[in-house]
Structure formats: C-alpha cells, structure tokens
Specification:
alpha/beta; Rossmann fold; 5 helices; 28% helix
Length: 180
C-alpha cells in the first residue's frame, strides 16, 4: 500500500513514519506541507492508495489539499484519513463532507492507526520478531485412531460342515425318488 503522509510537525511525522515502517506492505512517502503534498498528488506519474493528512499545514492547509483532491477526476476517490489534533464538530462535519474516510485524533497509537488502516484494506502488521516469508500452512492435527473392533475369528471346527467326498452316496433325506 502506497501511503502519502502529510505532516508538518517533524516529531509527529517521525512517530507516524516509525509506526508505518514496521509494516512490510507499506511504502511511505512524506510531505511537510500542503504545497509539497499537492505536487506529489497531482503528479500523473505517481500513485497513492491512501493519504494520511494533517489539517494544520503551512502553505496549503489540509482542507485546501482535500478540496483540490476532490476537484480532480484522477484523485477525487482517493482514500484520505485525517490525522489531526482538531476534532471539534465543525471540523469533523467539513471533513466528512469532503469525503474523509476516517479521522484519527492526535496523538495516535500504533493500534489505532492499524485499526483504521485495516478498515481500508491493509492487513495488520506481523507480530514483532516474526518473518514475513510465507511458510506452508500447518498440517491439521492428527486425530487419534478410532478403536478398531477385533477381526472375526473363524468358528470352531466342530460347527463347520464336513466336506463330502465326491464318491460318497447322498444322504437319505436328500434323495429324490425317480419319476416324481
């Protein structure tokens, strides 16, 4: 996910960059004011999936950047998350009217940032110390073997019919009178 971070405060920008740098799917570009942000966003050779935007910016404020984004057919549907200390009712209403997808109030925690980004399709980052190299899925747990009933035992020789020799006469009860 290509993210443009627009933040004029170097400490806040460094904190957010640190949070996002731990995610292997994030490719981060930063802008320190609205004018630089707009030049990056208006460049037809650049593409961003998301803008993290502060409102209090020098040169062009966050609302100015938003208005330009929404006025441009190439950027009007770009996802924007505000990350700002401003959270009064009028600011929130104006941001929503300009199509802001989510609103983060500074200072932002790592958990809050990734929760918002997950709502926009970015998977959560891996736990610290784990590798992003994909491993084969774990094998399913083996189930214990079911109890196998014992194999049937051959019946005792006394109950088995005795073989009849071919030359032996048929038993009387089996004899059929001739002519019937």
């Amino acid at each position: 996910m290509k993210i443009l971070l627009v933040e004029d405060d170097p400490v806040a920008r460094a904190v957010m960059a640190k949070i996002l740098s731990g995610h292997p799917e994030v490719r981060l570009t930063s802008a320190e004011d609205g004018e630089v942000a707009w030049r990056l966003l208006d460049d037809p050779n650049r593409f961003f999936d998301l803008v993290l935007l502060d409102l209090s910016l020098p040169k062009i404020d966050g609302f100015g950047v938003l208005e330009r984004l929404r006025g441009n057919p190439l950027t009007r549907n770009l996802a924007v998350v505000l990350c700002t200390a401003s959270h009064d009712r009028a600011t929130v209403i104006r941001a929503v009217a300009l199509g802001v997808r989510h609103y983060l109030v500074k200072p932002c925690t790592e958990a809050t940032v990734f929760a918002r980004l997950a709502q926009l399709g970015l998977s959560p980052p891996p736990p610290p110390g784990t590798s992003m190299i994909s491993a084969p899925p774990p094998l399913p747990a083996a189930e214990p073997p079911a109890a196998v009933p014992p194999a049937p035992q051959p019946e005792a020789a006394a109950s088995a019919p005795e073989p009849v020799p071919e030359s032996a006469p048929a038993p009387e009860s089996a004899a059929v009178p001739a002519g019937t």
